[in-house]
Design brief:
The complex is a heterodimer of chains A (429) and B (253).
Chain A (H helix, E strand, L loop, with lengths): L8 H9 L2 H11 L1 E3 L8 H20 L9 H11 L3 H29 L7 H23 L4 H12 L8 H9 L6 H30 L19 E3 H26 L29 H9 L9 H17 L1 H4 L11 H21 L7 H26 L28 H5 L1
Antiparallel strand pairs in A: 1-2
Helix pairs in contact in A: 2-10, 3-5, 3-9, 3-10, 4-5, 5-6, 5-10, 6-7, 6-9, 11-12, 11-14, 11-15, 14-15
Chain B lengths: L1 H22 L21 H13 L22 H9 L2 E4 L8 E4 L13 H7 L18 H10 L15 E2 L7 E2 L20 H16 L3 H30 L4
Antiparallel strand pairs in B: 1-2, 3-4
The chains are: A mainly alpha (429), B mainly alpha (253).
Bound molecules: protoporphyrin IX containing FE.
Protoporphyrin IX containing FE (HEM) binds next to helix 3, helix 5, helix 6 and helix 9 of chain A.
Chain lengths: 429, 253
């Protein structure tokens, strides 16, 4: 770490005792960023903005929300009607959850495409998968809080999944509920947990960024090759700060466009009907960001040996996340970026289409032909990770890799300007 | 690659809409034109006021609107004395008083809309076992929103030949399953409008739907107006940031 001579005496005083300024300077001024990163690298920063947005709006909602089965629904409506800008706070929080997932899903697929999970970023990636799991738990519990029909029935369906666990399943479900059905006790604990998990996520994000900034790790890039020197990098500030800011504002335009103009588009109308344990909605569907996993859950509608369909579905659903967790150890092909892996690249796009199909099936009733399509897509999901990727380890012959990041792209009429690869930017720092 | 992906997405989207229509569970009501639709929409105050009259004289016999208070009507352009007069038409149970008893008094602006029934059981008992839902957020609680509500109110028809209607049920073109326990609530000439507007079924249905939409989203205008300012700000900011970004990166590209 280069030590900086701070001019301001107060800053110097603090920094020599607690080097927070040097630290910030090192991590967010100097941090060398590959010069060729595209806008997909902004989705980490965008996710961060969304996380902070969710925590802030959530805090203000919690000041007015009451977690009780008799008042939860009306308290949310009162926030919208009687709290100053309450409608804005609530709609930002509601749409923010969706756009947080959009940002993080793009962030993840970026990682899949450019092989960002590979050596030396395995731990960084695995921390990311933990974040995703925590986000899912948080979003699920948050959706229960307004105590509408989908809140109640979604909570009932998902908590019931735990009853599939052999022997102790029923006991676990009763313990989760704090009673014999989803009720006041459940709502209260979900509120308590929903309040705290975002801060846990925040902590894990700090670890995530620490893992990224660890010596010898750093950011991957579209070419998937390591930086070899200052000519390959730009200092984080001002290059990434300004680029990320621009990307964040573009993202906000889309996110707030939904929030202000179609705030209920991504939600389900049934959640404006107060929860009623006696009336089951015709279709119980989770929020859109859970649909692919929901489709995998429902695809297993048959027993496998001693594992019954329900347990099988739960195993498949969690398995879908588990394969992501161990992905760095499945895909051992030495080339990171899909740019130079023609076969992997094809399978990547097939996987993207496959996940979209899963999401579509997840929103459909459990009828034919959706069930069959969901089963094929579920099969393909696991086939991709468990068979195709290991197979590619052996058979894929990558295209020739560029020798460095700064080396101009010569093929296909790319820019050939002399001096395009100067060492200038990083030297500025 | 992107082209391929976008083609795949379009294909999936087309697939997605096909079967949804085929399943035919919720018939699609025809889209109406609403002054509150669009980027800069505002409520038609006169229609909403007439709609309130329809609600008060017709629907409120069966349907509660628990999330609204009489004071909220100020937003529709009713004056303070008008709101006080409207509220005073209702006997509200208040209390307990110093002796511990509940008592009746005329409503005041701060009171919530009076509910027609004491509880769900009483409502069902009076309606052949069917429950008239609270209408406070009804336009947000149904697919197709206000188009559906309007469609429902004007959608009563004779059942097609061979359609078996349950006892006390009515055939409605847009109600899921077509059998609804609510008798056609709006009938020709039922309400007399002070402003001389025609009191045809479709006019009254339209007016009450505007009122219900307002009731469900009373901050709709604030939302759209704030949205326009925020969007304008963000677009300008994005333009400026893009210019700065170009300048900063000029020596890299
Ligand atoms: C709360 C959610 C998350 C936040 C706030 C967050 C934040 C960030 C930030 C700021 C970066 C650096 C900028 C970038 O490369 O985009 C980053 C990088 C990364 N993140 Fe995340 N992240 C989140 C979730 C995830 C998840 C769920 C995964 C994977 C399952 C993941 C995997 C990665 C990887 C592999 C990198 C390094 C990428 C590269 O340099 O190519 N992150 N994250």
């Amino acid at each position: 770490m280069t030590s900086v001579q701070w001019k301001n005496p107060v800053v110097r005083w603090v920094d020599s005792r607690f080097p927070v300024f040097s630290w910030l300077h090192h991590e967010y001024n100097e941090y060398p960023m590959p010069r060729n990163c595209n806008y997909l690298w902004s989705f980490g920063a965008i996710s961060m903005v969304m996380l902070v947005t969710m925590i802030l709006t959530g805090l203000f909602l919690a000041m007015h929300y009451t977690a009780s089965t008799t008042t939860a629904f009306t308290s949310v409506e009162r926030i919208m009607r009687d709290v100053n800008y309450g409608w804005l706070i609530r709609y930002v929080h509601m749409n923010g959850a969706s756009f947080f997932f959009i940002a993080v899903y793009i962030h993840i697929f970026r990682g899949l495409y450019y092989g960002s999970y590979k050596q030396p970023r395995e731990i960084l990636w695995m921390i990311g998968v933990v974040i995703m799991l925590l986000m899912m738990a948080t979003a699920f519990m948050g959706y229960v809080l307004p105590w509408g029909q989908m809140s109640f029935w979604g909570a009932t369906v998902i908590t019931n999944l735990f009853s599939a666990i052999p022997l102790v399943g029923e006991a676990i479900v009763t313990w989760l509920w704090g009673g014999f059905s989803v009720d006041n006790a459940t709502l209260n604990r979900f509120f308590a947990l929903h309040f705290v998990t975002p801060f846990v996520i925040f902590g894990v994000v700090v670890l995530h960024v620490a893992a990224l900034h660890a010596p010898g790790v750093g950011s991957n890039n579209p070419r998937g090759i390591d930086m070899k020197g200052p000519q390959d990098a730009v200092p984080f500030n001002p290059y990434m700060t300004v680029k990320d800011s621009f990307a964040i504002v573009l993202f906000l335009i889309v996110f707030l466009g939904f929030t202000f103009y179609v705030p209920n588009y991504l939600g389900h109308p049934d959640n404006y009907i107060p929860a009623n344990p006696l009336v089951t909605p015709p279709h119980i569907v989770p929020e859109w960001y859970f649909l692919p996993f929901y489709a995998i859950l429902r695809a297993i509608n048959f027993n496998v040996l001693f594992i019954d369909a329900k347990l099988g579905g739960v195993i498949a659903m969690f398995g879908a996340i588990a394969v992501l967790f161990v992905l760095p150890f499945i895909d051992r092909h030495p080339v990171r970026s899909a740019r130079y892996r023609p076969l992997y690249r094809k399978f990547f796009w097939i996987l993207v289409a496959n996940v979209i199909v899963l999401g579509w099936v997840g929103a459909k009733p459990a009828e034919q032909p959706y069930v069959a399509i969901g089963q094929v897509a579920t099969f393909w999901y696991f086939f991709h990770f468990l068979v195709i990727l290991p197979w590619l380890n052996f058979v894929e012959r990558p295209d020739p890799l560029p020798t460095s990041i700064a080396e101009p792209v010569l093929k296909g009429g790319g820019r050939l300007a002399a001096g395009a690869a100067t060492a200038k930017p990083m030297e500025k720092a | 690659m992107l082209k391929m992906l976008s083609r795949a997405t379009v294909a999936v989207a087309l697939l997605a809409t096909g079967p949804a229509l085929a399943a035919g569970e919720i018939p699609t009501p025809p889209a109406q034109t609403w002054t509150h639709a669009g980027l800069f929409g505002t409520f038609d105050r006169a229609a909403a006021q007439r709609g309130f009259q329809v609600y008060k004289e017709v629907c409120s016999a069966c349907h509660a609107m628990n999330l609204l208070s009489y004071r909220n009507l100020r937003q529709l352009g009713f004056s303070e004395p008008q709101v006080a007069a409207i509220a005073a038409q209702f006997e509200i149970t208040a209390g307990p008083n110093d002796e511990g008893n509940m008592f009746q008094r005329p409503g005041i602006a701060a009171d919530r809309f009076r509910s027609p029934f004491a509880n769900e059981q009483a409502a069902r008992y009076a309606n052949n076992g069917a429950y008239p839902p609270d209408l406070s957020v009804i336009t947000k609680a149904r697919k197709y929103g206000e188009d559906y509500i309007y469609g429902l109110l004007v959608g009563y028809k004779d059942p097609p030949a061979g359609f078996v209607l349950g006892d006390g049920m009515y055939y409605n073109e847009y109600y899921p399953g077509h059998q609804i326990a609510m008798a056609p609530p709006i009938n020709e000439g039922q309400v007399t409008y002070a402003d001389g507007t025609s009191n045809s079924v479709s006019q009254m249905a339209k007016d009450v739907t505007v009122f219900l939409t307002w009731a469900g989203e009373p901050y709709l205008e604030a939302r759209k107006q704030t949205g326009a300012k925020v969007m304008l700000f963000l677009l300008v900011l994005a333009g400026m940031l893009y210019a700065v970004k170009r300048k900063v990166w000029a020596d890299v590209h």
